[in-house]
Write a structure and sequence with these properties.
By secondary structure, the chain is an alpha/beta fold. It has nine helices and ten strands. Helix 1 links the parallel strand 1 and strand 2. Helix 1 packs parallel to helix 2. The radius of gyration is 16 Å and the shape is globular.
Length: about 230
């Protein structure tokens, strides 16, 4: 059964998400992009609020924005960290840059590889290429997301067949699978046959879209849908 990941931007949203059925709390700042990094003190507040009752993940932005020296500032208690590959296409050093970024993370933090379904718009490597390299670089999970929220939801950026092949490849490499990309109550049932480990949402959990606020009733409906 797929579990529910809710992306939050502060400790108040984290409290609502946890109390209303989220299985994993993800911290990001949506005004800074699809994987916009929240301030580290905000992430620390969320970790303390959750207090081990659910795992906490954090978006670190895009690979080309990440400074490995910042890894020492990551809050204790963080379970997962992820960064996108936007802008790396055509950069011959992207793979070695990714390796160095992952090696900078604390051993206690599991790495999540990010494949953008709208990879061409993002200027990122193709999703299959990300999935092929992820396990070899020590990643534990593969997040399949969309970069541009104006590109449409996940299955408007990648066909169901291609998505299934990507999920299958991830399974072969023993990667956990997280599906995201403007998923909603209406579209989540369309990806559940692929049996992802997590379904990740923000906009569907918010009043007013992804830049709005996480709303208890919306989280509860999403939790019931997956249950």
């Amino acid at each position: 059964m797929a579990r529910l990941l809710i992306s939050v931007r502060d400790v108040q949203e984290a409290r609502v998400a946890r109390e209303c059925g989220a299985d994993l709390i993800d911290v990001k700042e949506p005004s800074r992009g699809p994987l916009g990094a929240a301030d580290f003190d905000v992430v620390g507040d969320v970790v303390r609020e959750v207090a081990g009752r659910t795992p906490v993940s954090m978006a670190l932005g895009e690979l080309l924005q990440w400074l490995p020296c910042r890894a020492s500032q990551l809050p204790e208690g963080l379970t997962y960290a992820k960064m996108g590959m936007a802008g790396t296409i055509g950069n011959s050093a992207w793979l070695s840059t990714w390796r160095l970024a992952l090696e900078s993370l604390p051993n206690s933090v599991l790495s999540v590889a990010v494949a953008y379904a709208d990879w061409f718009t993002a200027g990122a490597p193709q999703p299959l290429e990300i999935a092929v390299e992820a396990a070899g670089l020590g990643c534990s999970w593969l997040l399949i997301d969309t970069f541009s929220k104006s590109s449409g939801w996940l299955l408007e950026c990648i066909s169901f067949r291609e998505l299934g092949e990507l999920v299958s490849l991830a399974r072969q490499r023993r990667l956990g699978v997280v599906l995201a990309g403007s998923l909603s109550e209406q579209t989540i049932p369309m990806v559940l046959p692929l049996e992802p480990d997590y379904v990740a949402v923000r906009g569907a959990a918010c009043c007013g879209g992804r830049l709005g606020c996480v709303e208890a009733a919306r989280v509860e409906r999403l939790a019931r849908l997956l249950a």
